Amino acid sequence: MAKENKELEIQTKEPVDQETERTRECRCFVPRADIYEAGDKIFIALDMPGIHENAIEITLEKDILNIKGYTQIEELEDYTLAFSEYEAGDYERSFRISDSIDRNKIEAVYKDGVLRLTLPKVEEAKARKIEVRVD
């Protein structure tokens, strides 16, 4: 079982709210995510297959990190779909981050259908060794 992380609050893994109005007529998925912590950084890996790197939008407003990816739904000419297990659609996921994350140094890299985010901690939040003086 993963330990609880106070720097990053994960929202429940529910489908994107269908009550909201969408400007695109396609399915919207919550991408699966793995979250790792190593020293002074938190890493998030999100599965977002079928997204072009120019169709990813990451915004940080107040304490909410919003990630959206938009697909281009490809219509094949002269073909009739016989069977399909793959559903194309957009992706949306949000994370609430604490003040211990350095908002100006968040980085994102997209490769092979996986979006990887690096969230460095601010200097004050990093673990440090305190030297003991002898008087």
SSE string: EEEEEEEEE
CATH level 3 topology of the domain at 25-75 and 85-125: Immunoglobulin-like
The structure class reads mainly beta
Average pLDDT score: 82
Low-confidence stretches: none
Kindly state the percentage of residues in helix: under 10%
* β-strand amount: 35-45%
Major sheet attributes: 5 strands, mixed
Going by CATH, the architecture of the domain at 25-75 and 85-125 would be: Sandwich
- Shape designation: elongated
Instruction: Give the total of beta strands.
Output: 9
* Radius of gyration of CA atoms, rounded to a whole number: 19 Å
Distance between the termini: 45 Å
How is this structure best summarized?
By secondary structure, the chain is an all-beta fold.
Notable characteristics:
135 residues, mainly beta, Immunoglobulin-like, five-stranded mixed sheet, four-stranded antiparallel sheet, 9 strands, 44% strand, elongated
